[in-house]
Amino acid sequence: MHYCHNCPPLSPIVTAPTQLYNNFYYPQAQPIVHPVEVINQHHCVPVPQHYVTYSEKDVTVSSVKKRKKRK
Fold it and tell me: What would the DSSP string read from start to end of 6-41?
């Protein structure tokens, strides 16, 4: 660099420092809880059920044949 011999020396200008960061990252376990709620739903569903009823009776039948009436 070439300096002029007629120029007076200047005072230095000092700026604010520039900050450089070196970041170091380390894994750290973070527990995350996922609650699961099981809901048992009970549903009443109509289902057809078919019932057959019957009755029984005793009838006495004569062994004698009835005559046909003549007109």
Answer: TSPPPPPP-PPPPP----------------------
